[in-house]
Design brief:
heterotrimer, A alpha/beta, B alpha+beta, C alpha/beta, B: alpha+beta, Arc Repressor Mutant, subunit A, Glutaredoxin, five-stranded mixed beta sheet, 8 helices, 40% helix, C: alpha/beta, Ubiquitin-like (UB roll), Rossmann fold, Dimethylsulfoxide Reductase, domain 2, seven-stranded mixed beta sheet, six-stranded mixed β-barrel, 24 helices, 26% helix, 21% strand
Amino acid sequence: MTRILLSRMEAHPSDSHTLARYEATGGYAPLRKALGMAPEDIVAEVKAANLRGRGGASFPCGVKWGFLAPAEPRYLVINADESEPGTFKDRQLLERDPHQLLEGIIISSFALGVHHAFVYVRGEYPRPARRIQAAIDEAYAAGYLGADVAGSGYSLDVTVHLGGGAYICGEETALLNSLEGRRGEPRIKPPFPAVEGLYAKPTIVNNVETISNIPWIVEHGGAAYDAIGPEGSRGTKLFSLSGHVRKPGNYELVMGMSWREMIYDIGGGIRDGNALKAWIPGGASAPWFVEEHLDTPVTIDDIASNLSMIGSGAIVVMDETTCMVKAALRVVRFFSHESCGQCTPCREGTTWLQQVLTRLEAGDGRDIDLDLLLDISDNISPGLAWPPGMTTICPLGPSAVSPITSLAKYFKDEVVAHVHEGGCPLA
Amino acid sequence: MTWSRATETRAAAILARYPEKRSAVMPLLYLAMAEEGGDLTEDGMRRVAELTGLSAAQVQAVASFYTMYKRDGVGRYLVSVCTSISCMLCGGDEVLDAVADETGVPDGETGEDGLFSVEHVECIGACGGAPAVQVNYELVEGVTPEQARSLCRWLAEQRPETVVGDDLQERFGGQRSFDWGPEEAEGATGPVPAFGPLGTTGERS
Amino acid sequence: MPSQPDLVTFTVDGKEAQVPAGTLLIEAVKAAGVHIPHFCYHPRMKPVGMCRMCLVQVEGPRGMMLGTSCTMPVTEGMVVHTDTDTVAKAQEGVLEFLLLNHPLDCPVCDRGGECPLQDQTMAAGPGESRFVEEKRHYPKPIPISDLVLLDRERCILCARCTRFSDEISGDPLIEFKDRGNATQVNTFPDEPFASYFSGNTVQICPVGALTATPYRFRARPWDLEAVESTCPHCSVGCRISVQASRNEALRFLGVDNGPVNQGWLCDKGRFGFEFLNSGDRLDTPLVRDEDGDLVEASWAEALDRAAAGLSAAAAEGPGRLAGLGGARSTNEEAYAFGRFVRETLGSNHLDAQLGDGLDPRVLAGITPRAAIDDLERARTVLVWAPDLKEELPVLYLRVRRAATELGANLVVVHPRATGLDPVATHTLRYRPGAGTEMLRRLADGSGDLAAVRAALDEGPVVAIIGRPGLGDDPRLAEAVMAFAAGLPDAAVLPVTRRSNVYGAADMGLAPTLLPGRVANDAPGRDAAGILEGLASGDLGGLVLLGSDPATDYVEPQQAAAALDAAGFTVAIDLFLTPSAAKADVVLPALGFAETEGTVTNLEGRVQKVNRLLPGPGSARPAHEILEDLARRMGGSIGAASAEALAAEIAGTAPAYAGITWEALSWGAGREGIVAPGPEGSQPLAVAPEDHAPPPAARDLVLHQARVLYDRGTLTQAGPSLAKLAKEPAAYVHPEDATRFGIKAGAAVRLTGSGGSAELPVVLDPSLVAGTVYVPLHLGAALGAGLEISMEAVT
């Protein structure tokens, strides 16, 4: 069983979050190694690792780093605003192995020429915030942060910033606005953060899990990371399993297994001996999978070629007792609630979708409502294609379309039954 | 208006740790809430505006964007029940009903005695331990409707000064998203997330 | 000069066009005759791509990309489609989304008939709504200030108003609130949208969400007549559209004159139109009867009386008569007034200013003189002048833009905090009377002023210079100008406030000038000298043209006494001002929007004003009145018509050669034409001069400056602005308050050179200790002297 991210907490459940345990298990040795390397060589190792971003978009981390503009100062911002329904992996990394993340931050900052890094932790995560803060405090005391990092002369400060309750701040430009003390509204791109980010300075925004991989990559080399897992899905990935599986939880896995293995072996199968109905393969934004996908492989690219996405690695499993209209409504409600409201199609469209679905679920649907839902969706995400087109500024609006298209594709009969039976046929 | 000396000192430390003052708005809003027992008042927003050089309208624009800055009053115990997709699948709606029924406070409201505020919330990152509840942002996972009732009764009877997640989990929780590791004693003293430093480097002189 | 940007060639809907590189697509397509609908985009604000109405398709490496044309700069070879099915569907979708929650109250909406949302819906909107759910509801319009109402149901959340307030005017008092579908525009509770620029948000609102109380329910757009003109309120000369119905002015709108106001107006300009409709306008001549009362008279009777009185005074000897005024007239009227005083009255005692401005030779002859638009290129802006936000608000916007958007250094020197301070790089404060010392230190640039001096040494420099307050000697301003003129690549904008004071100087309404910026070899008396002469009896009579020295002279009480003592006075005015009330004959004149002519703003830009309204009663154009008077006195000033006067000006005033009405009425001439400076321009030859010795540290000095909404005649003549004037107060430095044992809110008695007043105290730490600030024209008349005494009132 390959372990990169969870090994320490699995081996040392009582104190994996402490500096003492971290150092005792080889921690901060990669930092010392990195401080002896040329920054560009570290970037090269990360590129060679083919580590893809773990926040949802799967963008290659090293490539992103390569876009960083030369202007000073530059910033590294860790996106710990984990809020995608179904996702709880970063929370575990923050609580149980914060030094692993912090070492990743220090190495990455050094590699990128950053002297001030921020960890943007969602407001509803006080405990993870306390743990990463405690790790930072320990690191300052031990000389891993501050004016002279590990005696190298390199200086770095790290600030934990608590969010205020807004999923959209997981979108990196919204996060930067939020960190600047503004409404968490996504920015028009370009310019991308690597060119104009925090305070309009070059900025890299990376996910917690992504950066937690960095110490291992520096220690073992990019090639070693690139040797793990199938092409396009290198390294290990944390999957968050939830919903109607017997064994929900976070799993660090090398990708490439089938969905059948994921749900029935790793997840322990469906609770109460029920039958599987559908699952969301990569967080609430992802189009749903159904039985026909069970034997497709779990890799970033295979999920994409089957017209969904790995996203943050959140797998939400729904069994046969689940009302699909209600499930779709719950996901759409989420996006409507989390829409920042600045652009018209998302603000108005997601709410309209929610209103129509609410009527449908309550048994007040009309025959035309499914077509109406699809046309509203089309006006948010033209063509209803995957990857989604968008009339919006950011992908939040199109994310609300995923459950609608999934409903229409796999559960049209159930929608129609809601209209004709005046409510849910399962009730 | 100004705050207590201790709060003003903290505010100054928070301001010092950002390259630009405006960045301190969100932590200062939490400070304003903590100063006034949980509510974000107009005076609190005005003080944040003074400290950051923004207009009060700009501070309100930020505060009202986020769900955790409670501007319409909030109880001593803010009970947040997750009803997002994973928790919904595992009975979050029933937990919410139980909490509302037990406290007598409907979803989205604050009780007249100011003890409880009840709200349904979107995903709080506890899907592996669904359904999940937070009390003053301290988490309990794997909560059944009955446990939720017990939790509310316990809060009403014990009126704990500090709400500690590990303690709640021990008493009322079940299935967890993952092994939480060793228990910690830090917790929330009001409906503001218990994150002591609200930042870091500025307070280390 | 910045280099011209390269041109790029692109294709839109199959048509090729060329535009400068970097042009936003939404603007660029106009070159090909294509229009893209939009709501949030405004050419004078940064694009935000929020409404999504301007979606187009652009061909890219991965096929057709849908994007907002307001956020995409054109690049070479770009192929753009605005007419595909995809674009049409996307735009129709956005429109439908915008209409979901929009109320169907167009018939009772002020915007109806000129509403971009309504127009777009009529052109391309859905026939009927598919929306059967409940619409968003808010209480119908809520007042967010004394002037502006907000209807959140109509709002489409384009953020034009909030962006204007934050980005352009710098007073972000309205903002988004809440989020998602609950997002609304609002103010902070108890903090109204009290911006000097709030009316701009009403004008740029693409729906009827923001409406202005002065115009609300007054007219439908299709009932309005309009002419383009130039705002009469200050010397910036903002371009406006005057709109009226049934001979009543109903609103002014900003017109985007790029070099001047860029579309914006201040609220005083925008809502100040109400004075035109005031019931207090003079509509018939008045003459003083045997009892000493002013009574109505026929024009013939009044003109006869005026001519007789003036002729009698003139007969007493040469130079017995004088003229004051013309700073609010058109150039044509001012020119006629100059000829009347010089030729008919035979006098060189002539002044358009009232002791509160600058030497007219400076106004007319400063070189190198800056244009407002030089602010677009300035590296450094020096403002040592009145608080521009209070006195020349749209110039404040232009300077603010230079300092924020364009990144210029901004140095503000003033006795207290000004509206520009929040965006200034450096702010310097001094006590009135100690300005020369401040200038010496600044020129020296050592110590703590080194950084300021370094900023000033970065050219191009635009120096905006005037008298910050009444207590500042005009020679200080001249010394500052001489200093500024020596800065690298510097140009100077001399600042005084009255709308056409520059035109008046150019027309020779000054003791030292003849028309066309020509020196008068036989200078007469200035305003101070004229008033002294009237009081002493050295002068026998006076003609006032739109001038109210009893209110506006720096020592109003002296002026009032002089007018009382004057042998014979004729007042030509729109209102029975305190000065006119002392005249022997009062002749009602037509005013703004009632006459045609030209005006000259502070940069020397000549612009047209046009006629739309008949004016009250039998009021007549001032030049006609003057010509009739001249004829009755046995002469003529040749003022057959305003247009004939304009032709004469263009012929006799060198700076105005070629600036004809014709040239100003068409094409680029509508932006106005800057009258060229004197030939062979030479630096201002004024040496810094120690005028008054700086006051001793223990003494209190008085700083008096204007505020936008005061108790002036024009402001008070309209109900909307009249109520905005604040109560007068004494602004005292906290140290002085401690020294005098007074607290904020307590009353003090201030006694100055020209009067005494009891005022509440406001603490103002932005003053230099030892200074007391009292806003002018709010009711406390203290005189112009620097020294002031203060005592607590118990």
